[in-house]
Amino acid sequence: MQSPKRAALLGASGYTGADLLRLGVRHPGLEFVVLTANTHAGKPMSAVFPHLAHAGLPDLVANEDVDFADIDVVFCGLPHGTSQALVSSIIAQNANIRIIDMGADFRFRNPADYATVYGAEHVAPDLQKVTAYGLTEHNRDAIRAASIIACPGCYPTAALLSLLPLVKSGAIRTEDLIIDAKSGVSGAGRGLKQNTLMAEAGESLTPYGVGTHRHAPEIEQEIGLAAGAKVAVNFTPHLIPMSRGELVTAHVKLGTAKNADDLRDALREAYAGEPFIHIADKGVIPSTGHVRGSNHVVINAFDDRIPGRAIIIGTLDNLVKGSAGQALQNFNVAFGFDEATAIEALPLFP
Question: Do the strands 309-316 and 246-253 form a parallel or antiparallel pair, or are they unpaired?
């Protein structure tokens, strides 16, 4: 059995950081020796997340106070634009370290696309050559060898897991692809924002980033790669008044598939043997309640009343499979652990 890998978590005071610790402290191959949160540096974890008070975790420190020389793996849970320079500095200190980034800074295969989407030049473009896109089920070989693993956003994870096998097989067409997505308020982060206050988000379903959301180009990148052609998608996210959970409804044109039964068969064939991807039986509508608190994904296909079209519905927990759980799954792949280690828990109910 491998000795535990010494891990640092950057951005431990966010929701994804909290879920990574909730799950990761049970991993026999992980030892969290460094936790950073610049605004909470010097505090015990219990002061930030009381539910983790008894997990035996180190106190929080500032990023600049960490010596990365004896760290095996760094999990990054930082906002976009903040990881690039820091990761570059960490790799300069320790060339053998592995980085698993839950943020957006390394998700674009072409660094120029990052500048287009996020409005600022990428400060470490050379690192993209040693980066793998961390959609585990579709990129394991690259993940095993990469120095940096860029975990997808939660919306792209749900959309791509639902659609990539169908695009790759030609079962659906890529033109006129419409993705309607909904996420719990934890997807907006832990920072104080007016639109996520209980009085404003509660009992109110709100679209946002209409026509401009930054996850659309990420989805287009991966679907385009699978299709071998440039692809445009219509993507609209919504904030839904619940803590966690995510559901995407994709409206697609049929390709070689004749109906939803064919699509379901193609999905089942693609994900045969996958521990976390489940194709529901005919007629079963995926719900966020089917996956809450877990690394599991439920997908199904339905016939549209419009001839030649179908509806694909996929659901996951945005903080687990959409972030922290997928990061741990990628850790397992990268370091040779059983892929389900520490993330095998079944969904919470009710």
Answer: antiparallel
Q: Looking at residue 255, which CATH number applies to its domain? A: 3.30.360.10
- Is 257 found in the same domain as 222? yes
What burial letters (b/e) apply to 223-250, b meaning 16+ CB within 10 Å?
bbbbbeeebebebbbebbebebbbbbbb
Residues of the chain with pLDDT > 90, as a percent, come to 89
Q: What are the beta bridge partners of residue 36?
A: 10, 61
255: DSSP letter: S
Total domains in the chain come to 2
CB under 8 Å to 121, separation ≥6 — which residues? 115
Concerning whether 154 is annotated as a catalytic residue, the answer is yes
Whole-angstrom Cα distance, residue 95 to residue 130? 12
Catalytic-labelled residue, pool 61, 154, 227, 312: 154
Q: Are 227 and 154 in contact (CB under 8 A)?
A: no
Q: Please report the pLDDT score of residue 80 as a whole number.
A: 83
Distance CA 234, CA 236 (A): 7
| pTM for the model | 0.95
